[in-house]
Amino acid sequence: MKTKFISQADLAGLVADLVGAGTKVIAPVATRGGMSADYRSIHKLEEAAIGGPMPRRSLKEYFLPATEVLLKWKQTKDDVKLAEVPTTFPAQVILGARPCDAAGVEVLDKVMGWDYQDELWFGRRKATTIVSLACDGFDGACFCSAVGLSPDATKGSDVLLVPAEGGFLAESVTAKGDAFVDGKRFGEAKGQAAADGFRKAAREKVLPNVPKLPEHFADWMAKNFEHAEFKGIAQRCNGCGACASVCPTCHCFDIVDEPEGLDCGTRRRNWDFCATCKFTLHASGHNPRGTQDERFRQRVMHKFSIYPKRFNEVLCTGCGRCVRACPAGMDLPEILGHLIPAAKSV
Q1: Spatial contact of 340 and 217, defined as CB atoms under 8 Å apart
Q2: Whole-angstrom Cα distance, residue 247 to residue 304?
Q3: Whether the Cβ atoms of residue 252 and residue 271 lie closer than 8 Å to each other
Q4: Which residues contact 46 (CB under 8 A, 6 or more apart)?
Q5: 167, 5 in Cβ contact below 8 A?
């Protein structure tokens, strides 16, 4: 790991250098008059809201788009011809990512490379350098510390920037990050005391929001499938899937063949959501998760028991977007606040 410093002026120069070299730069950009932000492509640093509001959506869509073509097919009299899509991508840099978003990408590497290497996912991963920015502990919905992360976590990042006087302390995390901070815009490390103070304040702000998950939480959840907390848990849930669409780690998708004529079509992958009533609906009409309580329980179980037991990773980075996006006021930190003490009591 290397530690360097980059001034605000040099960061602006770095963005100009990257864009000039044909590298796509993605960063948080202010929306709604600065009240919110989204990750978008930028051409100069002044367009970005570095350190501003948390982007409404995560980085997931830059690696797993909401909809994407997998292949095209054309049927002839004797054969079906397939036209596959490229699995290599142009270089891009994500600048100023939230640590919880960067962590979400690494968490999903496990399932995307599980029994089959998802070529599109890993093609984009290889082409992307993630430069995250230590968070100030955004608001009361954040609970990264509960799931083993922190506002300055480096998981999933190639480089972590930490605010310091006049710029940012830059800490490389990977070999890709080492090469990035070796660039001409980075200088000798300085501002360590200011960076340490920023980190300490952010951690102290987030820590009280939700208790840390106990080590046996995944096992406890598996043994308490019928826990009373899951009865009526989704009384407010509309089953709309808003929580999953903004989540850094929800990754369910459907694959469909879309005809585009009598003899040709496109195979497409689209995001799907376990909260919807049709997600597990059988062709027979039977639905093994027939109630919204059962569907929401599955979401919680998948994140905190099923995925951790299979991949040794909690399928949640504590970003709090699900709370902010829910039109009905479903509150995952509140639910965890009930389940964690119950698990700790045994």
Answers
A1: yes
A2: 14
A3: yes
A4: 12
A5: yes
Mean pLDDT of 94-101: 98
Residue type, 254: D
Supply the pTM of this predicted model: 0.94
* Three-class secondary structure of residue 172 per DSSP: strand
Reported as a single tens digit per residue, the pLDDT across 137-185 is: 999 999 999 999 999 999 999 999 999 999 999 999 999 999 999 999 9
Region 50-79 average pLDDT: 95
Q: Which tokens belong to 253?
A: 């998708």
User: Exposed, middle or buried by CB within 10 Å (0-12, 13-18, 19+), for 68?
Assistant: middle
Q: Most distant CA pair in the chain: distance in Å?
A: 72
Residue 132, CA distances (Å) to 88, 128, 161, 181 in order? 23, 12, 6, 13
pLDDT-derived band at 199, boundaries 50, 70, 90: very high
Phi/psi of residue 16, nearest 5 degrees: -60, -40
DSSP E strands in 79-204: the ranges are 80-84, 92-97, 128-133, 159-164, 167-172, 187-188
